[in-house]
Amino acid sequence: FGRIGQQTAGIAKALGMHILAYDEFPNNDCRELADYVTLNELYAKSDVISLHVPLFPSTNGMINKKSIGKMKKGVIIINTSRGPLVNEADMKDGLESGHVGYYATDVVSSEPIKADNVLLTAKNCIITPHIAWAPKESRQRLMNIAVDNLAHFLKGKPVNIVNK
């Protein structure tokens, strides 16, 4: 339940949604924003699931036939995180059966999307071309971070160091 998940939760909460969150390392500061639950509870209780998860071997394919089977019928799933979090064939099956009501994604398992991607023919599926980061505000924030990084570097006090 990191920074992006928290921002998304804040918007959802403002719209009147009750927020459930799963995180291997819960942050006590976020308990006013969301109720932490187990991953299985999140699957079982959520009407909408928005993925904000890094891609690790443990999260690769986390949305699959088995996890979809634990979800409410008609669940809406949104993925603006990483394409491989979702097993796309299982997602198509979930959409076609109606177990998944809608799937909206900004990312797919292989980009650019291939013509034979099963999601292209799935019902109730919206795919955008990996542009969730593209609003003017996001680009401005990236430019501000770059300028701030350079200013700190020139002062001999670098920030956002990747290779300590």
Brief characterization of the structure:
This protein has 5 helices and 6 strands, in the order αββαβαβαββα.
Protein traits:
164 residues; 6 strands; 32% helix; globular; alpha/beta; two-stranded parallel sheet
Describe the structure.
This protein has helices at 3-14, 39-45, 65-69, 88-97, 136-154, and strands at residues 20-21, 35-36, 48-51, 75-79, 100-105, 125-127. The protein contains 5 helices and 6 strands; from the N terminus they run H-E-E-H-E-H-E-H-E-E-H. The model has no long low-confidence stretch (mean pLDDT 93). It is an alpha/beta fold and 164 residues long. The longest helix is centred in the last third of the chain and has 19 residues, at 136-154. The strands form 2 sheets. Strands 3-4-5-6 form a 4-stranded parallel sheet. A two-stranded parallel ribbon has the order 1-2. It is globular and about 60 Å long.
Distance between the termini: 26 Å
Bin the helical content: 25-40%
Radius of gyration: 18 Å
Order of helices and strands: HEEHEHEHEEH
Structural class call reads alpha/beta
Q: What is the residue-mean pLDDT, rounded to a whole number?
A: 93
SSE layout and pairing:
Layout: H1 3-14, E1 20-21, E2 35-36, H2 39-45, E3 48-51, H3 65-69, E4 75-79, H4 88-97, E5 100-105, E6 125-127, H5 136-154
Parallel strand pairs: 1-2, 3-4, 4-5, 5-6
